[in-house]
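User: Quick sanity check before I run a bigger batch. Here is a single chain. Can you write out its predicted 3D structure?
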Amino acid sequence: MSDNKLTDLKYSVLDLATVVQGTTPADTFKKSMDVAQLAEKVGYTRYWFAEHHSMAGVASSATAVLIGYIAGGTSKIRVGSGGIMLPNHAPLIVAEQFGTLASLYPGRIDLGLGRAPGTDQVTALAIRGENFNAAHNFPRDIVKLQTYFSAENAGSKVRAIPGEGLEIPIWVLGSSTDSAKVAAAMGLPYAFASHFAPTYFMEAIKIYRDNFKPSEYLKEPYVMVCVNVVAAETDSEAEYLATSVKQFFMGVVTGKRQLLPPPVKTMDNVWNVFEEEAVMQMLAYSFVGGPDKIKTELNSFVAQTGVNEIMATSHIFDHQSRMYSYKVFADVIRTAAYAPLV
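Assistant: Done. Predicted structure follows.
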């Protein structure tokens, strides 16, 4: 058990730019700006986008572009990637893109890095072309990025302009113990994707903490975890709203992906017992309920895990209900009390 308290916790947003039924990606991006501006107002630390490709319901493929859009419409919240999938990009291009973002919005840009393609193998082939079968070394590519961002690289023949000499925090993202070992060995902050891959979360953060080596970037281990959040005025309302994310993840389980659907009164006629089990396993780290239930479960979770920061992702069909959920979640952490949305 940890001594960490809920009121000490930093809280942030992961946005997949989820497209709801009856809308377009253009609508989604406008809603993302609404959420980001609210998040800044109620004290969220950062607002991240995740790189995914060829998914009808997820519009965050051009991650760096969306980061620039949100950073331009806010003034202080940190904005970044959760994450950039390094096998899809040359480190130099990533350094130039994020160097540009950090030049435009100094002190506000984060660079979270993942080792997966963020898509299926056919789409990965389309992204990488002849590089599809090339060997990818995740730690080596991170070192390349650190080199491009360093002032000492000024004498190199290959330079990131802009990017060189800028302080852009690098995070290691993961959903397995392998990523934990990389983050620990390199002395970097670690973000775990337990919002869809909860299986190795506890094992991974233990490995990370036990093997962490202090670096010039970070002196002590720092763990951020991403979880699903559906908060509402009452537990029953939250459970109703959460049927949208359950249907959405059922599409992942069955391979029949769809735009985020509206909530339903019951899932009984939507899934079978095997689909339910698979979906609920993926959604193991989810906080669904009214303020009191969220507070109780969060307190227990923080005491058990000792995380430094929690990143909420909320797949909610109705835009105002989604905004309200983020407001309630912030209120629970900030004040351990509920306050109406104004």
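Residues 244 and 263 are 5 Å apart (CA to CA).

User: Great, the batch can go ahead then.
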